[in-house]
């Protein structure tokens, strides 16, 4: 308890999945949490689950103007931002031979532009007091997957833009750390009865040394470490939580 006392955290795509699990974990450790999401249908359920006075701001991470609005509101309500978890992301199957321009630009807009704008606005707002920026990549930001062409391109970009931003902040002596996280396949309880998800699970299980998908809280625990001062000597680094997938 209290690992994030007196910290203010912004989590994008925080109404569901890993973002919501992380927001909940942060709040139990004392953080004031702001979740943003393009979709507000799960807003009330999410805020109830997180507790500790969390607030919701509707935001499309791919629009830079939305980022300026988010930081303005958060500073208005809480006075500062200490942590940004750039989590929002979308995935769509598509291979290198058949992807469409529309699919490509949609994934780049959310998974790459969204993280880039987040980093830029976080640096501008954190440079006086310092902070921690955590960017969501994937194991697909480190290794290839034949049917996730655009997704791997975007997540690989997140991995390297993290390093560039981390070096820039260190050079400027901003006391802002920037790291990326790379989960393997994560269990989605809401999709347990979805035949598409079951197919994905049966394809991936043989490749997972730990023999199971990860749980969202297992990703959240890693992000908590990166958000807290416990990770004060880590910047520009990539952190895996993949059940051993990439160790093979
Ligand atoms: P999810 O779909 O459960 O949650 C993502 C959230 O992002 C949703 O609430 C969605 O509404 C929101 N979102 C989508 N587009 C947005 C936009 N333009 N602006 C703001 N919010 C937007 O997904 P998840 O599985 O929790 O994944 C979260 C992140 O983790 C993603 O970046 C994903 O690529 C990454 N990831 C997931 C897995 C996995 O197995 N689930 C593995 C590796 C990486």
From TrEMBL:
It holds the Pfam family adh_short_C2. Belongs to the short-chain dehydrogenases/reductases (SDR) family. The lineage of its organism: Bacteria, Bacillati, Bacillota, Bacilli, Lactobacillales. SUPFAM superfamilies: NAD(P)-binding Rossmann-fold domains. It comes from Lentilactobacillus buchneri subsp. silagei CD034. The keyword Oxidoreductase applies. One of its GO terms (biological process) is bile acid metabolic process. It comes from the Bacteria. Its EC number is 1.1.1.100. Gene3D superfamilies: NAD(P)-binding Rossmann-like Domain. This is 3-ketoacyl-acyl carrier protein reductase. InterPro entries: NAD(P)-bd_dom_sf, SDR_fam. GO terms for molecular function: 3-oxoacyl-[acyl-carrier-protein] reductase (NADPH) activity. Keywords: Oxidoreductase.
């Amino acid at each position: 308890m209290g690992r994030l006392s007196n910290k203010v955290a912004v989590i994008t795509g925080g109404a569901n999945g890993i973002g919501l699990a992380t927001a909940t974990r942060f709040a139990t450790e004392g953080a004031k949490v702001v979740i943003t999401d393009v979709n507000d249908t799960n807003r009330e359920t999410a805020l109830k689950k997180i507790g500790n006075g969390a607030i919701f701001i509707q935001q499309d991470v791919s629009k830079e103007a939305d980022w300026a609005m988010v930081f303005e509101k958060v500073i208005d309500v809480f006075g500062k931002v200490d942590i940004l978890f750039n989590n929002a992301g979308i995935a769509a199957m598509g291979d290198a031979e058949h992807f469409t321009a529309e699919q490509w630009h949609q994934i780049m807009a959310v998974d790459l532009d969204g993280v880039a704008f987040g980093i830029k606005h976080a640096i501008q707002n954190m440079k006086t007091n310092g902070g921690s920026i955590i960017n969501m990549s994937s194991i697909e930001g480190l290794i290839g997957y034949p049917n996730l062409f655009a997704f791997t391109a975007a997540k690989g970009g997140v991995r390297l833009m993290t390093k560039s931003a981390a070096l820039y902040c260190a050079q400027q002596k901003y006391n802002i750390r920037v790291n990326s996280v790379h989960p393997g396949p994560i269990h989605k309880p809401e999709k347990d009865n979805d035949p598409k998800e079951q197919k994905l699970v049966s394809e991936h299980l043989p490749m997972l040394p730990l023999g199971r998908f990860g749980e969202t809280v297992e990703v959240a625990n890693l992000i908590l470490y990166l958000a807290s001062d416990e990770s004060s000597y880590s910047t520009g680094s990539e952190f895996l939580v993949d059940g051993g997938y990439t160790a093979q």
